[in-house]
Amino acid sequence: MFRIVQRASVVVHSVAKQSLQRPAAAVVSLRGKHGVQESDEAFDARYENFFARPDIDGWEIRKAMNDLQGEDLVPEPKIIIAAMKACRRVNDYALAIRYLEAVQDKCGNRLKEVWPYIKQEIKPTLDELGILTPEDMGYDKPELALKDVYDM
Amino acid sequence: MNGQLVRSILRGSQLSVRALSTSGPVRSSEAALDQAARDKIHPKLGNRDVVGWGFNGTASYVDREEFPLPAVRFKENTPDVMALREKEKGDWKALTLDEKKALYRASFCQTFAEMKAPTGEWKSIVAAIITALAVTGWIVIYMKKFVYSEMPHTITRQWQEDQLNRMLTQNQGRIEGISSKYDFEKGEWK
Known about the structure:
The complex is a heterodimer.
Chain A: H1 2-26, H2 40-51, H3 58-70, H4 77-89, H5 93-106, H6 111-129, H7 134-137
Helix pairs in contact in A: 2-4, 4-5, 4-6
Chain B: H1 2-12, H2 35-41, H3 79-88, H4 97-107, H5 112-115, H6 121-147, H7 157-169, E1 182-183, E2 188-189
Antiparallel strand pairs in B: 1-2
């Protein structure tokens, strides 16, 4: 009787191991969400196409940017380029600078590693549109002080 | 309730409106409201543009790292801001650094660097803790000096030594207690 149990447990273990190995090949990116998992390229393409819409308006741009800020990633340079061009289309310079600052914030404590790469990729677009980086604007250090509401 | 208010005002002023969601700020491209209507719906908005949905649908402004673009611009549309906006429609390379900064500050209150700047609050917290400990220390001294009664006389060193000697002389605890630890022949502890 114990022989049978032992055999059965060995079989169960081997089947479990096989079924665990298979998904690693099928899923390209793990996002830990329910349903179909979007690949990285599909995610990037979705946002790039969204920003590339010619009739986009400020409302939609802000919605997409805020959503991107909520994702656990630093946006690809091509998404950032598309966002900058979208800002140019709606004639909103402050929006572009704000979004660059937001991208720097998403880099977290690895800013020195990630930001030079991003800057190198997007610099041609920034120069073409006339957008300064936050450092060039002087916004990498605090400029003005805000009085605390509790001190008013 | 907010949606009904909007719809009744708009119907009254005979503007055409696409289907609005029930509450939240109105998209400026769809329906133009006059200032009186705006003051009714958004009492503290003033002349400012509503530019997005914000994080909860109200026309609010908060500086947040995780939500960089709030629902309204920060400053009101004064004539010089409007002049800058006209210039913004042209080539951005023609804007000076001061104009670019002015445009940023018109839309936003604090930059990210200012948002995340340390406040030095920890110093006041540490100071408060040390003060509290100091006050407690003074209370302890006061209690010892004025409140507590004298210590019992049996607590002095001399008394305790005599007490121990007495216990050994009487052979207390000779099996497993204190006397069993004392070597009476040699006159010292085991």
